[in-house]
Here is the input.
Amino acid sequence: MARREKQPVHKVVMTEGKRNIVHQLLEEYDIQTAEDIQEALKDLL
Here is the structure.
């Protein structure tokens, strides 16, 4: 039985600017889990 190739769920255009913002957030808040993301977003709001 052949495995099907995984297809992305969402088609998001990731510009270089968006990529840099995400990278900086991951570094600044040491995001490892979904809970970490929620805490970082609380700080930003």
In short: The two ends are 49 Å apart (CA to CA). The mean pLDDT is 85. Residues 16-29 form the longest helix (14 residues).
